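in:
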């Protein structure tokens, strides 16, 4: 019996605890990034300077213009919650980022639900701020 690639992907999906999925989803919705960035990161690594540039704004990566430092800080939070990972090449760590399997699951869900990230609720935003900035347990 031959498995299609979709069947193969479903069998290989990682089952995450509900709390992990909720935390990751909340962080993604509260981030300054839009779905096109996450879709691009699913297909290839995206360098930090591109995300923070006018080109990144033109491609719909950011909700608003941001400095490279602010973009990097937001990316580091998404790495902590398990959505993104830093790319590594033969020379070591790079300034490019990709989705993790958890990030791919979330992006696929949002693409199937209409192709945009909904705005976070004020409770999600507050909880995300408390976890991120006050270092409460995530």
């Amino acid at each position: 019996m031959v498995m299609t690639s979709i069947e193969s992907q479903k069998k290989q999906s990682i089952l995450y605890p509900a709390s992990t999925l909720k935390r990751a989803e909340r962080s993604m919705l509260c981030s300054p990034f839009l779905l096109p960035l996450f879709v691009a990161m699913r297909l290839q690594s995206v360098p930090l300077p591109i995300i923070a540039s006018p080109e990144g704004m033109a491609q719909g990566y950011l909700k608003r213009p941001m400095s490279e430092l602010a973009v990097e800080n937001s990316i580091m939070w998404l790495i902590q919650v398990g959505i993104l990972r830093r790319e590594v090449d033969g020379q070591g760590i790079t300034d490019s980022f990709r989705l993790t399997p958890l990030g791919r699951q979330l992006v696929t869900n949002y693409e199937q639900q209409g192709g945009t990230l909904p705005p976070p609720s004020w409770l999600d935003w507050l909880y995300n701020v408390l976890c991120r900035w006050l270092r409460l347990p995530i």
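note: The CA atoms of residues 49 and 68 lie 7 Å apart.
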